[in-house]
Amino acid sequence: MGTFGNPDQENSKSGKDASRCVRLDGGMNRVEMLEAAATAKSVSPHSPNNPSNLVLREDNWRRRPGREMRPDGGRDIILSRWTIQLANDELEVSRDEGEPCHVLSIALQATRQSFHWNGDTVVDGRVPAHSLMVSGPRDHPCRAVFRQSADVFRVYIPPALIEECTRGLFPGSGALPVGFCTANLVEDEALSRLVRSLVNIDEQGGSLAPIFVEGIGLALTARLIALQATPGLSRDASPKRVLAPWRLQRVKDYIEGNLDRTITLEEMSEVACLSRIRFGAQFREAVGVTPYTYVLQRRVAYAQRLLRDTKMPLAQIALLVGFSSQAHFTTIFGRHIGLSPGQWRRSAGN
Asked: Annotated region Disordered: where (predicted)?
């Protein structure tokens, strides 16, 4: 059975995904088709509606998880968490080589430690919670001594993402403007807030987590570049452009036809024929919200139609509108509408 999208938009999709559109034949109406799809649909561990954990366990200190599969880091950020519980003893950890990525490390709890990068002492003493350290991709040895338990969340930013954002911020520049090639403690609330928004993404994001992580990855990379831009580089000062109507309509049609599965920022930017960073900025300028928020709003609106027009159980509706579980669907629906799905259905007279 094919993938089912918004019943009002079956024929709106174009291009390579046109084969996914619902075709109404055999005498079945839309409601019957949707109910049949929901009955047959299940979520496997590898389904787009049940994305794998995005925050990976960092087994080896400051070693990017999955580096064997993607030595260059790929195109998107990688998230990891490293924890250690200490009673009275100290723990010394070290790395003889760095990662080919910029690394943002944020302390999720206060600790006491020393950290040495290429022979220089970066910190030695108490490290408050939410302290943020940024280190560059150079192949320098580093060492740390932990004197208290620690819980560290890390964001690995690959060179390809740095370059993508640089080209968007500094069109025509020949050199990357990032100055973080050593290790530094950074006091920037905007950067810290962006990193912290990713910490609990596996518990809170559900099937929308990948697009949220994509967007935050672009935002924090752009912020990092802006903070460390090399003097003399000319940033794009042209007025903000609004997404062209034809691009916007193509993206909206694509979203409506794929509400039952994970939609990524990269997919939408490809539909709009723009880079991710330009698409994100122009979409927000045109619509007033981020692509992530817009997709969420459309899923909730689709759920309202199903709640009003069908007798399907809430669990089936949750799957059809792209949520990984009824619990996540109920949380998001209540946050946007102010009522639970069941309460709203009763208020709608169904």
From this structure: 1-22
> pLDDT of 140-171, one tens digit each?
889 999 999 999 999 999 988 988 888 877 77
55-227 folds as Jelly Rolls (2.60.120)
**Contact yes or no for 181/230 (Cβ under 8 A):** no
How many whole angstroms separate alpha carbon 18 and alpha carbon 132? 45
pLDDT at 168: 79
How far is residue 70's CA from residue 306's CA, in Å, rounded to a whole number?
A: 42
Residues 169-209 pLDDT 10s: 777 655 554 556 678 888 999 999 999 999 988 877 677 78
pLDDT of residue 233: 44
- CB distance 257 to 13 below 8 Å: yes
Low-confidence spans in the chain with pLDDT less than 50: 1-51, 177, 231-235, 237
Q: Which residues of 244-278 are buried (b: 16+ CB within 10 A; e: fewer)?
A: eeebbebbbbbbbbbbbebbbbbbbbbbbebbbbb
> What is the per-residue pLDDT for 36?
35
Query: What are the backbone dihedrals phi and psi of residue 107, each rounded to the nearest 5 degrees, phi first?
Result: -80, 120
DSSP class per residue in 15-60? GGGGGGS----TT--HHHHHHHHHHH----TTSTTSPPPSEEE-SS
Structure tokens at 339: 């009522």
Class of domain 15-41+239-347: mainly alpha
Q: Yes or no: say if 52 and 29 are a contact pair by the CB < 8 Å rule.
A: no
Pairing outcome for strands 55-57 and 78-84: parallel
Cβ density class 186-198: b for 16+ within 10 Å, e for less: beeeebbebbeeb
List the one residue out of 91, 223, 87 whose CA is nearest residue 162: 223
Neighbours of 295 (CB within 10 A): 23
> What tokens were used for 311?
């007798």
Q: CA angle, 55 as apex, 52 and 61 as ends, to 5°?
A: 135
Domain residue extents for the chain? 15-41+239-347, 55-227
Instruction: Write out the two tokens for 84.
Output: 């250690």
